[in-house]
């Protein structure tokens, strides 16, 4: 049979779990991840593929560093942009499969020349989180470099819509399913809440390809996604998240489709599954058939791992009975490590055997070596081993992981004795801490709350907030969870009648907590997309005395993305002005609003009467404040002679303390004092009223003939609208 023409073949470069940014602070391994990703993108350009398909975990961190983001964007721009036209025809509605500011495929954007489009889903490392629910792929999509698809808006009701592509006579239906927590994904599939959409016309002519990012193997009964839960109309499944390279497609006899597991492009853990040769694949689809071309990656650092048991190894026979056998064991283990280093170097040479000329950056790298040693000795004998880090440091300059070359462990014999701290923890938490397996934060939180129940806060959301704080580096996750939960509880209680509250407050709190718990478990309660905004600055706010309004912690408020129904509060009068309504909203969110008729802060009258132009508006603002009982009006300050050495702050302070007693009457004309021969302002006598003009300038010299004026506490009454300043105040410049 003659080979199929290229005009009808869709060529896809497949890669998963690139983990760009892994160990970027390590002096030796810092560039491994992005160099391999750059090699993958160069393969896409040199192999002349039609598109690149990524299976999640493009970045290792949820919030990648600038260096990681820069290297990814550089590789994408260098290899994916160009004048070569993309031969893929886009058939589906882009608004249904893409979200964000630009809901269309990037190679159809008239402002960008894309020659090789990249399609990607998110994994568990680069998933959306935080304010706005964005992830790193959103940044790449808004820059026009990546087509981010496969989003999951509701975890308990998943709709998977395909991207329909066509080249010649070959039609491709590309399905994407981004990472969801494995237990929740398993439950959603079990409850038949996952719906796969198929083309309306000629559905039998499409090649159905699914890319997902979930656990492939059972760690617990529900912490993975079984293959038989996937629909059987699929032709090929590309499985991300698993790092072991099993790139040869394996047919599932029960469902009939093939499964391909490309594995990671960089070793993120020193386990045997990561030691296999890393590959990417060029998937060639023609009609309803496909073939896979494996390509080994050359920039991957060589990695060799072994595991030995000293009691069963012939090279260590008889040493357990020898006294002070540490030196002999160390020497023989060093020989094993040297053999492993030679093996790793030989493996690298075999991949690069045909490359006679190598660049300086592509010289043979230091290998990764991991020797796992069980040193359990027979009864009555003993194996003495060296400190693992000291042993590993012997190979500095020969290996890349010079701090963890060897791992010593003993076989577990019975239950370990619990310490005092372990006894204080619940049983399930203590077992997990005592095990040597990887501990998940959410598992510890769930087991802890199983023993210590909460009364107000929902436990499932609490565990998710702790997981976001620890795993996703979301510093405000717990804080926002507590605020949202308490606010929801308060609003729920305020909607109850007074009779129901007196009957049993605890029962209502518990009932509302269970409702929030159930909503979160079922996936109905989405993460609020909060926006921050500044509250309107109050009229009585004085920036000189109180500081800048935008620098205050209370000036910022969190606004929910979706409008919430207003809750009526009986027995409270609401202001009618626009400013008062905004403050009322803030009171709804953050605390109690002031009761009608309550006294406003005293500085309101002072700030409201600062200038005569604002006298009309100040009448309403300063109305709640009590008037100062002064027999006569304080004289207003006139314009003084310009003083180049006088600080403007002092001048503003002097103007602030001058006030008008009667807000209803207009301000009297300014009285101009006679010019002073000197620049000193203290020579002016005090006002006739009890309000004294103060000057806080530090440039004046004290005179012996003039005594400091002190105002006793008896002279300042509560009715005075002026608030005394502190005696020591630093002069701002």
Automatic annotation (TrEMBL):
GO terms for cellular component: Mre11 complex; site of double-strand break. Residues 290-469 form the Mre11 DNA-binding domain. Residues 594-637 have a biased composition (Low complexity). This is Double-strand break repair protein. Core component of the MRN complex, which plays a central role in double-strand break (DSB) repair, DNA recombination, maintenance of telomere integrity and meiosis. The MRN complex is involved in the repair of DNA double-strand breaks (DSBs) via homologous recombination (HR), an error-free mechanism which primarily occurs during S and G2 phases. The complex (1) mediates the end resection of damaged DNA, which generates proper single-stranded DNA, a key initial steps in HR, and is (2) required for the recruitment of other repair factors and efficient activation of ATM and ATR upon DNA damage. Its main location: nucleus. Residues 666-676 have a biased composition (Pro residues). The lineage of its organism: Eukaryota, Fungi, Dikarya, Ascomycota, Pezizomycotina. Transmembrane segments: none annotated. Gene3D superfamilies: 3.60.21.10, Mre11, capping domain (3.30.110.110).
């Amino acid at each position: 049979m003659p080979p199929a023409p290229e005009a009808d073949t869709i060529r896809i470069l497949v890669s998963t779990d690139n983990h760009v940014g892994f160990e970027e602070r390590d002096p030796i391994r810092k560039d491994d991840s992005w160099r391999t990703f750059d090699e993958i993108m160069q393969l896409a350009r040199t192999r002349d593929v039609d598109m690149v398909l990524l299976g999640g975990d493009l970045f290792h961190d949820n919030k990648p560093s600038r260096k990681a983001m820069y290297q990814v964007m550089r590789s994408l721009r260098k290899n994916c942009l160009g004048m070569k036209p993309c031969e893929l025809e886009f058939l589906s509605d882009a608004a249904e499969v893409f979200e964000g500011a630009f809901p269309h495929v990037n190679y159809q954007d008239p402002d960008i020349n894309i020659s090789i489009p990249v399609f990607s889903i998110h994994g568990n490392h680069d998933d959306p989180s935080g304010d706005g629910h964005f992830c790193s792929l959103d940044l790449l999509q808004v820059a026009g470099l990546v087509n981010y698809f496969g989003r999951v808006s509701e975890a308990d009701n998943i709709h998977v819509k395909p991207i329909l592509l066509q080249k010649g006579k070959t039609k491709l239906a590309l399905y994407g399913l981004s990472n969801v927590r494995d237990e929740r994904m398993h439950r959603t599939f079990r409850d038949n809440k996952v719906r796969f959409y198929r083309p309306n016309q000629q559905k039998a002519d499409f090649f159905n390809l699914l890319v997902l990012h979930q656990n492939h193997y059972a760690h617990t009964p529900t912490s993975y996604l079984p293959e038989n839960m996937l629909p059987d109309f699929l032709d090929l499944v590309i499985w991300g998240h698993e790092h072991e390279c099993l790139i040869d497609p394996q047919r599932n006899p029960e469902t009939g489709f093939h499964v391909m597991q490309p594995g990671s492009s960089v070793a993120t853990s020193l386990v045997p599954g990561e030691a296999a040769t890393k590959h990417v694949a060029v998937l060639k689809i023609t009609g309803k058939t496909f073939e896979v071309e494996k390509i080994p990656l050359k920039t991957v650092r060589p990695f060799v791992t072994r595991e030995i048991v000293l009691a069963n190894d012939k090279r260590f026979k008889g040493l357990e009975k020898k006294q002070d056998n540490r030196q002999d064991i160390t020497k023989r283990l060093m020989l094993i490590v040297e053999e492993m280093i030679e093996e790793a170097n030989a493996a690298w040479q075999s991949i690069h055997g045909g490359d006679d000329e190598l660049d300086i950056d592509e010289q043979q790298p230091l290998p990764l070596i991991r020797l796992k040693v069980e040193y359990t000795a027979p009864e009555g004998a003993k194996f003495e081993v060296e400190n693992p880090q000291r042993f590993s440091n012997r190979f500095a300059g020969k290996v890349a992981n010079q701090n963890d070359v060897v791992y010593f462990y003993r076989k577990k014999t019975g239950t370990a004795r619990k310490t005092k701290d372990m006894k204080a923890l619940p049983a399930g938490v203590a077992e997990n801490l005592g095990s040597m397996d990887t501990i998940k934060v959410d598992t510890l939180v769930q087991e802890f709350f199983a023993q210590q129940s909460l009364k107000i806060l929902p436990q499932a959301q609490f565990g998710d907030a702790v997981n976001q704080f620890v795993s996703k580096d979301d510093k405000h996750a717990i804080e926002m969870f507590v605020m949202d939960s308490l606010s929801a509880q308060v609003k729920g209680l305020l909607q109850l009648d007074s009779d129901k509250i007196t009957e049993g407050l605890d029962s209502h709190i518990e009932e509302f907590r269970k409702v929030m718990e159930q909503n979160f478990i079922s996936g109905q309660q989405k993460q609020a997309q909060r926006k921050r905004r500044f509250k309107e600055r109050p009229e009585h706010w004085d920036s000189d005395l109180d500081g800048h309004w935008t620098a205050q912690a209370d000036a910022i408020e969190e606004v929910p993305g979706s409008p919430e129904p207003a809750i009526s509060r009986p027995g409270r009068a609401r202001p009618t002005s626009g400013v008062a309504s905004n403050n009322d909203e803030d009171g709804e969110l953050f605390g109690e609003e002031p009761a009608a008729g309550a006294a406003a802060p005293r500085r309101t009258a002072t700030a409201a009467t600062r200038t005569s132009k604002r006298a009309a508006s100040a009448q309403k603002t300063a109305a709640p404040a009590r008037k100062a009982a002064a027999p006569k009006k304080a004289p207003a300050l006139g314009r003084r002679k310009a003083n180049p050495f006088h600080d403007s702050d002092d001048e503003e302070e002097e103007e602030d303390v001058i006030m008008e007693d009667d807000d209803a009457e207009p301000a009297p004309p300014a009285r101009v004092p006679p010019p002073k021969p000197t620049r000193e302002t203290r020579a002016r006598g005090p006002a006739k009223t009890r309000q004294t003009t103060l000057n806080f300038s530090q440039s004046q010299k004290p005179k012996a003939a003039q005594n400091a004026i002190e105002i006793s506490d008896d002279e300042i009454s509560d009715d005075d609208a002026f608030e005394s300043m502190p005696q020591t105040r630093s002069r701002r410049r």
